[in-house]
Write a structure and sequence with these properties.
Layout: H1 2-8, H2 11-22, E1 25-26, H3 27-31, H4 38-50, E2 54-59, E3 62-67, H5 69-83
Antiparallel strand pairs: 1-3, 2-3
Helix pairs in contact: 1-4
Amino acid sequence: MNDAFKALSDPTRRKILQLLKESDLSAGDIAEHFNISKPSISHHLNILKQAHLVQDERRGQSIIYSLNLTVMQEAMSWLLGMIGTKGAHPDDEPK
């Protein structure tokens, strides 16, 4: 899970995840949304893959990237559990 949160700390990687939320994309399609080099996009995609936030699949000559929703759900569940603890907000205290 640490790798997932480290990967999510970068705004470029968060934007890649937002793009993949809309549809599966190739690295070239993803790169069109950024003003950075294709090797930089590949680097970000590799970090997301190492964190298991995205998965890739070869389709003919292309590699298509998609969200790994299982890991995303686990990370969000953990985060929501942390902020949803009793007493986290003064209005949550019993009266």
